[in-house]
Structures are given as C-alpha cells and as structure tokens.
TrEMBL record:
PROSITE patterns attached to this UniProt entry: NOL1_NOP2_SUN, SAM_MT_RSMB_NOP
Pfam families: Methyltr_RsmB-F (PF01189), NusB (PF01029)
GO terms for biological process, alphabetical: methylation
Origin organism lineage: Bacteria, Pseudomonadati, Pseudomonadota, Alphaproteobacteria, Rhodobacterales
UniProt protein name: RsmB/NOP family class I SAM-dependent RNA methyltransferase
Binding positions (S-adenosyl-L-methionine): 247-253, 268, 294, 310
GO molecular function, one term: methyltransferase activity
Classification via SUPFAM superfamilies: NusB-like (SSF48013), S-adenosyl-L-methionine-dependent methyltransferases (SSF53335)
All residue ranges annotated as the SAM-dependent MTase RsmB/NOP-type domain in the record: 150-429
Gene3D superfamilies the record matches: NusB-like (1.10.940.10), Vaccinia Virus protein VP39 (3.40.50.150)
Family: Belongs to the class I-like SAM-binding methyltransferase superfamily. RsmB/NOP family.
Keyword Nucleotidyltransferase: no
Keywords carried by this UniProt record: Methyltransferase, RNA-binding, S-adenosyl-L-methionine, Transferase
Active site: 363 (nucleophile)
Length: 430
C-alpha cells in the first residue's frame, strides 16, 4: 500500500473509532456525527466513506464481535479499549481485512490515546488470538440481538419468530433502492443493472458509488428505500392537486408527488435538512414550495387536497440501515414522540380541505407509533373514513386494522427485505 493511501486508511480507522465511541458512550447518532465539525469532516471523501462503513459495520455486528472476544477476556475491558477490539474484530472477520494490518492498526490506535495506551499489549494479544479463528466460527454465530428495551416491545407486538427474522434482516443490512423520476422502473433497472421491484422501485445489490450510476447527474432517480416510497405511491397525487408534505426532509416523498404533477408544499422544522430537500429538487429539476417551520405552529389560509404526514418517530424500522439507533436511543427517549405524533395528526386534519385525504406514516416497528396512533385518531375524529389501499403489489400479510399497512424488515426476505413502516389513509368528510 502506498504511503498516502496508508495514511488515509489510518485516519479512516481513527475516525471510525471516534464514531463508535460517540454512539456507545455519548448516545449520539452516526448521522449527527457525520455532519460539519464531526470526526469525518477533515477526511477525504473516500476515507470518509470508509470510516463510516467501518463504524456502521462494527455497530451492526457488535454482538458477534463480543461473542468472539469474550473467551479471550478475563473481565470486560474499559469502553475505549473495548471499542478498539470490536472495530478490529469486525474489520477482520466480517470485512476480510488482513489480520497483520488490522492488529497493528488497532495497537497503534491504543497507543495513541492516553486512556488506552497502557492496555496496548492486551489489544495485541487478544486480537492475535481472534485472527487465528477459522472463518466458519464467525459465520456460525447467530445475528446480534436487539437491546432489551426494544426486543421486549417487539416480542410482545409481533412474536418471537418475527423478532428473530427482524434481527436476521438487521444483520444482513440493506440494499440500495432507487425511485425513478418517470416511474419507469424497468428502464432504470436496465440502465443500472438493478432489479425492478413490484412496488416500482429499483433495487441494486452490493456496494456501489451512487453518484457514478447512470442517470444520477441528470436527476433521473433518487435514493429511497422501497418501503419509504410507498406512502406517496398510495397517496397517488394527481396533476394540479394541492399537496402538503409535512416533516418532508430529506425530500423523497416531495419529489415523488412533484413528479406526479401535484402542486407541492414541503414543510420541515430543520433548516439544515430542508437545504437537502432544495438540493435534491434542483438535481431532479422538480419544483415545490419549501417552508421551514414547526408544523404545530405554522398556519396558512390554504387548505390542501391531500397531506402526507411522515411523523417524527423512533425510526426503529430503519435499523437495518442505521444499526447505531438501538445504542443511541432507549425506551425513555421514544415516549415523548407519542403525543407529538397525535398532535401532528390533528394539525394535519385541520389543514385538510373537506373531502381531502391524509396519509399518516412512521418508519417505526412499535405499535404505539402506528396501530395505536391510528385507533386513537379514529376515536378523536369519528367522522374520518379509513382509506382502503388497493394495489397489485400489496402483500396480504401487510394488511393491518382499519385498512392500514404494516411493513417489517423480515418481509420480502428473498428480495432483500424492507424498512419497517406503518402506513394509514384517512379521508375527511366533504
């Protein structure tokens, strides 16, 4: 390896370690840490991507790494040392890194920090034993279990078999899904080498550079999980309709509805996230009115034909893409979201024109953020009519009460899975 590249790899490993420690010790999310002033900021783009991949892979397979390390440790090491051991273990056994380089790099990381330098010898000794393990030992390990606060809730909601399937989906990670601007999934699949899914998305397996795929520069598509594309598909915006996208960032649903010809207003509380919506609209040459505001405070004389509310939630349906989530959040941090979701549903209904339709969705696996929210909304507003979704791609197993849909990561396992989502439709009386 040439010297500049080797230095870049060293910096990427150090940044990955900083990300892992911040998630485990400070309960911060990788998405927050990847922003300005974060540990990735000084890196070159290729090293930044490598650091993020290393950190995410370590967090995804941490349970397996701990199972491998346990026999070689008399007692749990201090958290900063444990993070180094986990990173190197996953890099070797899951990532296929050369043992010599990964062990030496881990020892160098330990020596570079006063909190860990005294245990550099332990790091070296333990990782040399890990490096001697046969690959079959790693492959035979079960998928990492979800943290207790979440596993218990999902077990109660969906049953043990479903939880095991969800954990397997989380360990497998997620493929890349694209939404074609013109709706022609077959053509986009042909151009990119992907597979057209029944829902209209295009799925690409393996690791690819997104900006190098055909059609990126022309704005012919955008990245969006297949499940995340379904709320806008089910809303089925028509040309000229006045549509409001509440909690719109990063803008995939806004672009879907704008591409359908609707007059779209996109609202989000985060100025930084709305800047991404603006960038995505510019790349795809689509138009929407952008509003940075708190949806509960924002008011307008306009009433909308349709509203899509993708409410703030625990995001537990996206763990296969964001394995840091279970470590950065806990049950207490999720509870305040429940009343916020209820308030947003009521606010959206107030902005809806008579006869208008609301799509409420969350990327959550918790019934409190889906089925329970829908039932409570119908109790508060008995004049609302649930919308029955009809599409040839809807699997009967997705159907839930009050005509809603419940998606889980263990669904479509043979196709690469789906993010967890709850989607419901409500029509306001005319």
């Amino acid at each position: 390896m040439d010297e500049p590249r080797e230095r870049g790899t060293e910096r990427a490993r150090a940044a990955a370690l900083d990300l892992i420690r911040a998630v485990l010790e400070d309960r911060r999310l990788v998405a927050e840490l990847a922003g300005p002033d974060g540990p990735l900021e000084p890196l070159e783009p290729s090293d930044r991507a490598r650091a993020q991949r290393l950190a995410v892979s370590t967090l995804r397979h941490m349970g397996r790494a701990d199972a491998v390390l346990k026999p070689f440790l008399r007692r749990p090491p201090p958290p900063p040392v444990h993070a180094i051991l986990r990173l190197a273990t996953v890099e070797m056994l899951e990532g296929g890194a050369a043992a010599h380089g990964a062990v030496n790099a881990a020892v160098a990381l330990a020596r570079a920090d006063r909190r860990t330098e005294a245990l550099a010898g332990l790091v070296n000794a333990v990782l040399r034993k890990v490096a001697d393990l046969p690959a079959s030992d790693w492959l035979a390990l079960p998928p990492p279990r979800l943290p207790g606060w979440l596993r218990g809730r999902l077990d109660s909601a969906w049953g043990r078999a479903a939880v095991v399937g969800i954990e397997a989906a989380h360990a497998a990670g997620a493929p890349l899904d694209l939404t074609p601007k013109d709706g022609d999934a077959a053509a986009l699949a042909g151009a990119t080498g992907g597979v057209a899914l029944p829902t209209g998305s295009v799925r690409i397996a393996g690791s690819v550079q997104v900006s190098a795929l055909p059609g990126y520069g022309e704005g012919a598509w955008w990245v969006q999980d297949a499940a995340a594309s379904l709320p806008a598909r089910l809303l089925a915006a028509r040309p000229g309709e006045r549509v409001l996208d509440l909690c719109a960032a990063p803008g995939g649903k806004t672009m879907q509805m704008a591409a359908a010809g609707a007059t779209v207003t996109a609202l989000d509380i985060s100025e930084q996230r709305m800047a991404r919506v603006e960038e995505n609209l510019a790349r795809t040459d689509l138009t929407a009115t952008l509003v940075v505001a708190d949806a509960l405070d924002w008011d307008t004389d306009q009433r909308f034909d349709a509203i899509l509310l993708d409410a703030p939630c625990s995001a537990t349906g996206t763990i296969r893409r964001h394995p840091d989530l279970p470590f950065a959040k806990d049950g207490a941090s999720v509870k305040p979201l429940f009343p916020l979701q209820s308030a947003l549903i009521d606010r959206a209904l107030g902005l809806l024109a008579p006869g208008g339709r609301l799509i409420f969705c969350t990327c959550s696996l918790l019934p409190e953020e889906g089925e329970a929210q829908l039932a409570a909304a119908l109790d508060r507003h008995p004049d609302l009519a649930p919308i029955a979704f009809e599409a040839p791609w809807i699997d009967p197993g997705w159907r839930a009460a009050h005509e809603a849909l419940r998606l889980r990561p263990d669904f479509w396992a043979d196709r690469g899975g789906l993010d967890g989502f709850f989607i419901a439709g409500l029509r306001k009386p005319a």
